[in-house]
Amino acid sequence: MRVVKNKVAPPLRVAELDIMNEEGISKTGGLLDVAVDMALMEKKGSFFNYDGKPLAQGREGAKMALRDDKKLAEEIERRIREAVAAGKKVPKELGEEKEE
Fold it and tell me: How many folded domains does the chain comprise?
């Protein structure tokens, strides 16, 4: 997705997001990406681990696990918000513009 003009942020930024047929823009996909990038969740190969425990194999499996376990998704979102509020920087890859 490329934002050409808006009134909230700089123009011509590029964003990646998952659009699913049944749910629209996938919140769990974004949650998963940010958690991995902020080192709150670990990804080894195709396996996702949370707090040292295996969560799922593959990105779609991890998204499904977060969708099924609302408490876990809320806990991860809370930890992300706390880390950002405490001043932890979002990795540069998330904030940088990407060339097309």
Answer: 1
